[in-house]
């Protein structure tokens, strides 16, 4: 053996870059997703969207009902405030619709019956039209709208009757307000639970 061959060059322990490089086909990654990967991702997104749409629709329906219930409660509070202020109800009938005359009576200061000129009620414009205080578009099927109904305790017995179609409910309260759903006779949204 040659003594010079035992001395190693410190750089010789590393392999030459050109001799130990893997083939170029192993190092290259595809530049795009495969068709299978894309189909899997699209199907997962479609499945998630299919699950989310009914949940979103249900939440929107609940929000509309809550909004209608809040307006019904506002009308009830305004009718009670009218009674506290004038000692009488805004109407001399036990049950009436929140029509244009009622809307004018409760929301303006110039009505002859509202002699003190008090604004008892502020209603968002989406709840009003020429027929009075109504449910907003999209609450009933086919964007139909219906007037709120107000029932007051004229005889002082603490009971009012709320009716929706053929269904009547006796309520232990002085004032009840509800929005009838003409498609579902037992599912009015009102100021009672």
Overview of the structural elements:
This protein has 193 residues and is of the alpha+beta class. It is elongated. A 4-stranded antiparallel sheet has the order 1-4-7-8. Strands 2-3 form a two-stranded antiparallel ribbon. The chain starts with a helix and ends with a strand. It has one domain (35-190). 35% of the residues lie in helices and 15% in strands. It has helices at 3-6, 24-27, 35-86, 100-107, and strands at 95-97, 128-129, 132-133, 149-152, 160-164, 167-171, 175-179, 189-190.
Topology:
Elements: H1 3-6, H2 24-27, H3 35-86, E1 95-97, H4 100-107, E2 128-129, E3 132-133, E4 149-152, E5 160-164, E6 167-171, E7 175-179, E8 189-190
Antiparallel strand pairs: 1-4, 2-3, 4-7, 5-6, 7-8
Question: Into which percent range does the helicity of residues fall?
Answer: 25-40%
User: What share of the residues does DSSP label as strand, in percent?
Assistant: 5-15%
- The SS-based structural class is alpha+beta
Intertermini distance:
104 Å
What is the helix tally?
4
What is the mean predicted local confidence, pLDDT? 83
Question: What best-fitting shape do the alpha-carbon axes yield?
Answer: elongated
Biggest sheet: strands, sense, closure?
A: 4 strands, antiparallel
- Strand line-up in the sheet with most strands: 1-4-7-8
The tally of structural domains comes to: 1
What is the C-alpha radius of gyration, as a whole number of Å?
37 Å
